[in-house]
Design brief:
Radius of gyration: 23 Å
Number of strands: 15
Order of helices and strands: HHHEEEHHEHEHEEHEHEEHEHHHEHEEEH
Shape: globular
Distance between the termini: 24 Å
Oligomer: single chain
Low-confidence stretches: 436-443
Strand order of the largest sheet: 4-11-10-9-8-5-6-7
């Protein structure tokens, strides 16, 4: 396709922008080989150093990758074509079990907590120079973390789990460094890492969490950071068990300079115990967000870690947004203090829906996974065909390509909104759709 697109520009930034526009528009495909630097420089009548600088910008932005003598090519999943684009368009009348949302019926009322926070803001407005962390939120969060065995450390507040991951990687790593990530894993993380100019090293995962041998291999291969989902892993529902945590700590002790990032976004919707790895390495961070238990619009996560790491995150935050709105922090503190979410009831309800679907599939000879959280992962031999056949049958599921690098194919089903009477019909449809068949494009 490169012969159909003419790269333009006289300066490095212009050349890089030309390539990035082409990738974003689809004029350059993932995997497309770019011209050698000297050849492009001659074509554009610029110095080869200018093209080298443009390619460096593109690498740091996660748009291209360079493989020595094989040259530079558009990344298989460049930052400009994120995994969110790998989705099913849901027609009218099709049941959507692909979206990853919590059940609105299990979310608590927010009005009282926000009314109280707003009334306090009216009495005592937040001004520049005020503290960035609400003391009540920090106290409640730290008490819960202590109870779950997370090591002591300062508390920061960020705008959700992904914001935390981005800030942590940015303050510790440099473009070109490698990050070990779960595979399959959270698609946003898989997009974020290359967007920061970093490399992803996949780590296999089973129901008990990341595989220790895979983690060891990734760290030996040069990974400077490891991102782990403690519970309710997206998309598989994995949760780190006590035995797996011991094995992972042993691996991490062999690599004490690794930046360890733990994401406990499932806090409040799970019924499996937490087995944290925090504190095993010199630099570590542990975060909990409010989105799954209280609603996706509550863009807030509490972050703790070693003093140096938290201080770096706070410093970068001060140079950007400054702080997460105190009115939001105070509302969340009130929600947590009053126990507005009955975590046992929510976890039990999600568990009932997961269990019913997994058992229904098992009776039909289909293997599925989902130890915790809101999702069920179904391995399939033909992911594209399964998605298309399910769409034809009236069900929209998430293609596994949104969550995979080298892991085998699969589909993700969000069970949070499933009614009891739907589960058997969905199990029938999945069974009919997951057999071998011709590959088809997504709807």
């Amino acid at each position: 396709m490169l012969e159909d697109y003419r790269i333009e520009g006289r300066r490095a930034a212009e050349i890089a922008a030309s390539v990035e526009r082409a990738v974003g528009s689809g004029a350059l495909d993932p995997g497309q080989v770019l011209p050698p630097m000297r050849e492009l420089a001659a074509r554009l009548e610029v110095n080869p150093n200018t093209v080298a600088a443009a390619y460096r910008i593109l690498r740091e932005r996660g748009v291209i990758e360079t493989a020595g003598r094989r040259g530079s090519r558009v990344r298989p999943a460049p930052a400009t074509t994120g995994r969110d684009s790998i989705r099913v368009e849901v027609p009218d009348g099709v049941r959507d079990v692909s979206n990853g949302n919590p059940d609105p019926a299990l979310l608590p009322p927010l009005a009282p907590a926000f009314a109280a926070a707003a009334a306090r803001a009216d009495r005592d407005p937040v001004l520049y120079g005020d503290g960035a962390v609400d003391p009540d939120l920090a106290r409640i969060a730290r008490s819960d973390l202590d109870a779950d065995g997370v090591p002591d450390g300062p508390v920061a507040v960020v705008s959700g789990s992904l914001d935390a991951v981005e800030r942590l990687l940015a303050v510790h790593l440099r473009p070109g460094d490698a990050v070990a990530v779960e595979d399959p894993g959270w698609g946003r993380t898989l997009d974020l890492v290359p967007a920061l100019g970093l490399r992803t090293l996949p780590v296999g995962i089973d129901d008990e969490g990341p595989l220790p041998d895979d983690v060891r291999d990734a760290l030996r291969a040069g990974a400077r950071a490891l991102v782990v989902t403690c519970r309710a892993q997206n998309p598989t529902g994995a949760a780190v068990s006590a035995a797996r945590a011991r094995a992972l700590r042993a691996v991490l002790r062999e690599h004490p300079e690794t930046l360890l990032i733990e994401d406990d976004h499932g806090h409040g919707i799970v019924d499996v115990p937490l087995n944290p790895l925090a504190g095993t390495t010199r630099h570590w961070a542990f975060m909990r967000s409010a989105a799954k238990a209280y609603g996706p619009d509550l863009r807030l996560a509490v972050l703790t870690g070693d003093a140096e790491t938290v201080d770096r995150v706070r410093g970068r935050q001060r140079l950007g947004p400054g702080w997460v709105a105190l009115i939001l922090q105070r509302a969340v503190a009130r929600l947590w203090a009053e126990g507005t979410v009955d975590a046992r009831r929510v976890a039990a309800e999600y568990g009932r829906r997961r269990g019913a679907l997994i058992e229904g599939l098992a009776r039909r000879g289909v293997t599925a996974r989902g130890r915790s959280g809101m999702h069920v992962w179904v391995p399939v031999p033909d992911e594209t065909g399964a998605v298309a056949r399910l769409l034809h049958a009236g069900w929209a599921v998430a293609p596994g390509a949104r969550f995979r690098m080298s892991a085998p194919q699969g589909i993700r089903i969000t069970v949070s909104g499933l009614a009891e009477e739907e589960i058997e019909r969905l199990a029938d449809a999945i069974t009919a759709a997951t057999g071998p068949g011709p590959a088809r494009s997504y709807g």
